Amino acid sequence: MAIKGSSMPTEKDPGNIWQDFLLQINPRKLPIVPREVPAEPGVYVWFREAQPVYVGKASGTNGLRSRLRSHLHEGTDFSRSTFRASVAAAQLGIPRSFVRQRPSVMTLEQAAVANEWLAGCEVGWLVCASAEEAQRLEDALRNEWLPPLNLV
After folding, report:
1. How far is CA 149 from CA 52, 61, 87, 145, in A?
2. d(Cα 120, Cα 28) in Å, to the nearest integer?
3. How much is the pTM?
4. What's the CA gap between 140 and 17, in Å, rounded?
5. Are 127 and 40 in contact (CB under 8 A)?
6. Each residue of 100-141: pLDDT tens digit?
7. Which of 44, 72, 76, 137 has the highest count of CB atoms within 10 angstroms of its CB?
8. CB–CB of 125/42 below 8 Å?
9. Cβ neighbours, 10 Å, residue 81
């Protein structure tokens, strides 16, 4: 299933904040080694076919490392990752509210569909000096252009 609206801003609306951000990150193919991901706060973006599909911030304990680990978890619990839940909902054609239930109601087969799609993604990140800086950058990016798997 293709995700609608996954194009970057048009030349008419160049999206300077996005362009500057994308020049500073280095997208990596999966799998990634968790210890290679910084434990500082930051902003990350998931790509599919070289197009950004989700942007998020990491500001909690262990920063980017912890947040990306939650997105990479391959079990049936989709309640801790809005990104994984959005992927599952889009790929399976089911409501995100169903996907995010706790305890999980997702089957191994349903999780496999989402995990297979995620395996074709890349992820890049930018370390920020503080959680507040990460929040400001994520807000600026989302205000300029909202990737298709982000919540409005």
Report:
1. 9, 24, 7, 12
2. 11
3. 0.88
4. 7
5. yes
6. 999 889 999 999 999 999 999 999 999 999 999 999 999 999
7. 44
8. yes
9. 23
